[in-house]
Amino acid sequence: MDNTTTLLTGVIVLLTAGLVYLYISQKKTEKEESSDNTDSATKTLQLQAYERLTLLVDRIALPNLISRVNQSGVSSRDMQVLLTRGIREEYDYNISQQIYVTADAWNAVKNLKEQNMLVINQLASALPPNATGLDLNKLLLEFMMTDKKGQLHEVVSEVLSYEAKKLL
Fold this sequence. Notes:
Elements: H1 2-60, H2 62-69, H3 76-93, H4 103-126, H5 133-146, H6 152-167
Helix pairs in contact: 1-4, 1-6, 3-4, 3-5, 4-6
């Protein structure tokens, strides 16, 4: 009877250890699969953020902004307001994307916004009081063609593209 009890106890211990091992293995596999799904979801959100910021950069690039908000018959002051408001609205709409991208990428977008608003305000203030919105737009487009700072949107687009490609 002692041998039978010992044998039975040993079998129960082995079965219990086997069940514990299987349970732990299953939980570990589930955790790894969950982690893979989380990483995949995070990467998807990050890539979507880079896409949205690339679109933002394109929309606040001065030539595109001018063509989108241009109105005939407005003063340079009114055009200045339309342009800066357009930049601010686009930026504010996409501000939440900063949590998904690198600090460098977000700073590049933020610097583009600030530089474009600065250029618009400086060039608008250099015009005479009776200047038209068309005069301001022409001056802005001339600046874009002659000053390397006018092409900052291209540099920012490249930064965003580079950062997104690192995720792939």
